[in-house]
């Protein structure tokens, strides 16, 4: 879970989220909301993402400012759950 959070939040390509699905949702003003363990147990889900899925939440009143922040300053909006997992990864990682 921590590694997944880091991959989605911290791994970048030219400053933007490396994952194309994350990049799509963030460009459109979403918040990286929740990482779900074993949410996709299909063979494809296990192979592609170890069964994990991410929820992106759109707060309509914030989508324009979130999108502008992401596109302008590459700032990713994320929930406390995601940020906590990122922090745990950073504390325990040897990368």
From TrEMBL:
One of its GO terms (cellular component) is peroxisomal matrix. GO terms for molecular function: malonyl-CoA decarboxylase activity. The gene is Mlycd. Pfam families: MCD. GO terms for biological process: acetyl-CoA biosynthetic process; fatty acid biosynthetic process; malonyl-CoA catabolic process. Residues 1-58 form the Malonyl-CoA decarboxylase C-terminal domain. Signal peptide: none annotated. This is DCMC protein.
